[in-house]
Amino acid sequence: MESSSHAASNCHDALETFRIPSLLPSFYYIPAFLTTEEQSLITQKIPPNRWTHLSHRRLQTHPSPLTATSTLLAAPLPSWLTTTASVASRFEELGVFNNSPHRAPNHVLINEYKPGEGIMPHEDGSAYAPVVATITLDAYGVLDIYSKGVARSENAREDKSPSSRIQITRIFQEPGSLLVTIGSSYRDLLHGISAVNFDETLGPSTVANWEMLSEETRRTIEEGVGRLERGTRISLTYRDVIKVSEIGRKILGLGSK
Ligand SMILES: O=C(O)CCC(=O)C(=O)O
């Protein structure tokens, strides 16, 4: 990881180097945030018995799912999610959570997508502070970014089907990369991952962070004339849940993990 010497501050100075220039505002792409060895150290620690199987992916939630009132029952994140490869310290160096209420992540969703799987365009909502740090493990991903507007059909009724969304761009996520989404990028845009076996037409005019990708990645894409075969990708999305209840700690004695 290309680290910064900036001390953590109230803004995101250390992240500025990594801002995706063609995308305003605040998407940051940090290539090679983790080495291949660090990625497999984390992958090996993902508990095999915690998966929830959804129609187009499987999911784990740590330390626990939010309650019906979008509250997190206070409990620490499993230490392997923060200390392996010093992930939490690296977030601090970059100042990723400097402006969030707890100044650190308290919740992690782990998604696994096999080739042909994805997630519909959506927003992450107000339960979380507007900052998400996404680590990509094992295989590349392509995040589609959409405006919240929808195309209107001839009879002027809103068509909210995925194909009617207005796609703005795509962000290519190399294995080991970190993508940080902050502020209005979080609040005002939708994101999704198309459920395909191959990504097509990848290139400088369609991928917002093309210039930030490694030469090897760009060469591989160019050799495939913009076409790339999906592998199985795992994503770790670190967030800060705004409402935290201490009741779990008090009643259930959580927090000893
Ligand atoms: O896997 C990803 O990179 C995106 C996950 C996502 O959009 C979500 O969990 O809301």
Automatic annotation (TrEMBL):
GO cellular component: nucleus
Ranges where the Fe2OG dioxygenase domain occurs: 104-242
Localization of this protein: Nucleus
Entry keyword set: Dioxygenase, Iron, Metal-binding, Nucleus, Oxidoreductase
InterPro entries membership: AlkB-like, AlkB-like_sf, ALKBH6, Oxoglu/Fe-dep_dioxygenase_dom
The keyword Oxidoreductase appears for this protein: yes
PROSITE patterns, sorted: FE2OG_OXY
Major subcellular site: nucleus
One Pfam family of this chain: 2OG-FeII_Oxy_2
SUPFAM superfamilies named in the record: Clavaminate synthase-like
GO molecular function: dioxygenase activity; metal ion binding
Similarity remark: Belongs to the alkB family.
PANTHER family listed in its UniProt record: ALPHA-KETOGLUTARATE-DEPENDENT DIOXYGENASE ALKB HOMOLOG 6
Protein name: Fe2OG dioxygenase domain-containing protein
Originating species: Patellaria atrata CBS 101060
Phylogenetic lineage: Eukaryota, Fungi, Dikarya, Ascomycota, Pezizomycotina
